[in-house]
Write a structure and sequence with these properties.
This protein is an alpha/beta fold and about 400 residues long. Helix content is about 35%, strand content about 20%. It is built from 14 helices and 17 strands. The protein has a six-stranded mixed beta sheet, with helices on both faces. β6, α3 and β7 form a beta-alpha-beta unit. α5 packs parallel to α6 and α9 crosses α14. The termini are far apart. The relative contact order is 0.12.
Length: about 400
C-alpha cells in the first residue's frame, strides 16, 4: 500500500500508470527539441476516497515557458457565490475580504459591488515571493509557507473572508496550503475553496481530466472528508453545473469541529468503487478511441485536433495517438509555428483544415460553443470534413461517431 497525501495513511493499493508524460504547457519551438517527461500515475485511497497523482512535477519544470499562456476558470456562478459570501453570519460592510491569487480578483470586484469595500488581493511577487514573471499557481502553492503567511498578515491584517480559488487541487503539500489559509484568516472567519468536481469524468470515463498540474481530484464526499479530517467546519458546499466540467465550491471555517471522519463507510465504499472502476476501464476506453481514430487514418483520411491546449495534449498523449494527428488547429497566432508536447504535431491556423484535406477534426471546446465552431468551419464540413467532440457527453462525440461507423460496418 502506498501512502495517501491527504489522509497520510497507507491506502492506495494500485496505480493507473500512464507512463512518463510530457508537460502540456511545454510547447516546442522545433520538432527536434528534447522534452522533459514525468511519471504519471493515478490512484485512489481506500481509507479516505481521494483520487490523486502519485508525484508532482518539480515546480521549476512545471512553470510555463511562455508569458501568453493563461488559464481561464469558469465564472458564470460567481454572482451567486458573491451573494452567498455577503450573506454569511458575521459578514458586514465593515468586514475585510482577501484574495490569494489573481483568480480571486473578479470575485472581489463582485463583493465590492455588494457593499464590501474592504478588500485586498495578494501580489505574487511582492506578497508571496514568486520571483519569476512566468510563475503561476504551481509557484504560488509552493510559496504558501509560514513566512509568507506572516508577511500577509503583517501587511493586510487577518481578513474575515479569504478567497482561495483553484489552488487546493494544485497543492504539492495540501496540508501546508490548508495551514496557510488557517494562519491568514481571522479566527471564526471563512475561507472559500473552489476546484473542479471530478464526478463527470469518472462517470463518463473521460481521462482528459488527468492533468499534471492537478494533484488531487475531488468529489463533494471526498472534499468533505478532507475538511473534517483537518478540523474545518463546512458552512456551504455546492456543485455548480458546467457542460464540460462542474465546479465544486466550499466555504469553510477553521477549527470549527474536532478532526474526524465526515464520510460514512457506505459512502466511502461507493467513492472507492467508482474510482477504481474508472482506473480499470482505461485500457478499454483507450483502445476504443484509438480504433475510431485509426479507422480514418487507415482509410487514407487525415485527422486534426481543434484547440492547442492541455485537453488536446492529454487526448493525444494519454490515448497514444502520436502519429495519427496531422496537426492541431488553433487560431492564436502566438502558437503558430510551435509543436505540441509529446506528439510534436504542428500547431497551425484553422484554414489548414481545408488546405491539408483533413477528414476528421476532433474538437476540445465546450458544448455551448460547438454550434458556433461548426459554423466557423462550414467550409471544412461542406467539403466532407467531419467535426467530432472528444467529450463523451457531446451529441457530436467521437464515441457516437465510432458507434455509427461500427453499425455501418
Amino acid at each position: 500500500m502506498a501512502t495517501c497525501r491527504t489522509c497520510r495513511r497507507d491506502g492506495i493499493a494500485d496505480w493507473l500508470d500512464f507512463g512518463p508524460q510530457t508537460l502540456t504547457n511545454r510547447f516546442l519551438r522545433s520538432a527536434g527539441e528534447v522534452e522533459y517527461a514525468h511519471p504519471c500515475k493515478l490512484g485512489v485511497c481506500r481509507r479516505c476516497g481521494t483520487i490523486q497523482l502519485e508525484s508532482p512535477v518539480p515546480v521549476a519544470e512545471m512553470r510555463p515557458r511562455f508569458d501568453w499562456i493563461v488559464y481561464n476558470e469558469p465564472e458564470a456562478h460567481l454572482d451567486e457565490v458573491a451573494g452567498v459570501l455577503r450573506g454569511l453570519p458575521g459578514v458586514t460592510p465593515a468586514s475585510t475580504v482577501g484574495g490569494l491569487t489573481y483568480k480571486d480578483d473578479s470575485t472581489l470586484k463582485r463583493l465590492n459591488a455588494l457593499g464590501l469595500p474592504n478588500t485586498w488581493l495578494a501580489h505574487a511577487r511582492d506578497d508571496l515571493g514568486v520571483e519569476s514573471p512566468l510563475g503561476g499557481i504551481e509557484s504560488i502553492q509552493a510559496a504558501l509557507t509560514p513566512a509568507t503567511t506572516d508577511r500577509l498578515v503583517a501587511k493586510y491584517g487577518r481578513p474575515d473572508v479569504l478567497l482561495v480559488r483553484h489552488v487546493l487541487e494544485h497543492s504539492y503539500d495540501i496540508h501546508q496550503t490548508l495551514a496557510a489559509a488557517k494562519a491568514v484568516v481571522k479566527p471564526g472567519g471563512y475561507v472559500l475553496f473552489e476546484m473542479p468536481d471530478v464526478r463527470k469524468a469518472l462517470e463518463r470515463s473521460d481521462y482528459t481530466t488527468v492533468w499534471e498540474e492537478h494533484l488531487f481530484y475531488f468529489t463533494p464526499a471526498t472534499l468533505r472528508q478532507l475538511f473534517a479530517a483537518t478540523g474545518w467546519g463546512v458552512a456551504y458546499l455546492k456543485r455548480f453545473y458546467f457542460s464540460q466540467e462542474d465546479v465544486l465550491l466550499a466555504v469553510v471555517q477553521p477549527d470549527a469541529v474536532p478532526p474526524g471522519d465526515a464520510i460514512s463507510p457506505r459512502e466511502l465504499e461507493y467513492e472507492v468503487t467508482r474510482a477504481e472502476s474508472f482506473l480499470r476501464a482505461f485500457p478499454r476506453v483507450r483502445d476504443r478511441i484509438r480504433e475510431t481514430v485509426t479507422r480514418f487514418t487507415r482509410a487514407g483520411k487525415k485527422v486534426a485536433m481543434l484547440g492547442a491546449g492541455h485537453l488536446s495534449g492529454a487526448f493525444i498523449n494519454l490515448y497514444d495517438l502520436d502519429g495519427h494527428i496531422d496537426f492541431v488547429d488553433d487560431d492564436n497566432p502566438k502558437k503558430h509555428g510551435l509543436f505540441m508536447p509529446g506528439s510534436k504535431a504542428p500547431i497551425l491556423p484553422s484554414s489548414e483544415l481545408v488546405a491539408r484535406n483533413i477528414g476528421l477534426c476532433l474538437m476540445t471546446v465546450r458544448a455551448e460553443i460547438e454550434a458556433a465552431v461548426a459554423a466557423k468551419n462550414a467550409a471544412f464540413t461542406a467539403r466532407g470534413g467531419v467535426l467530432a467532440s472528444i467529450f463523451p457527453e457531446s451529441p457530436m462525440s467521437l464515441d457516437a461517431l465510432g458507434r455509427s461507423a461500427g453499425k455501418a460496418a
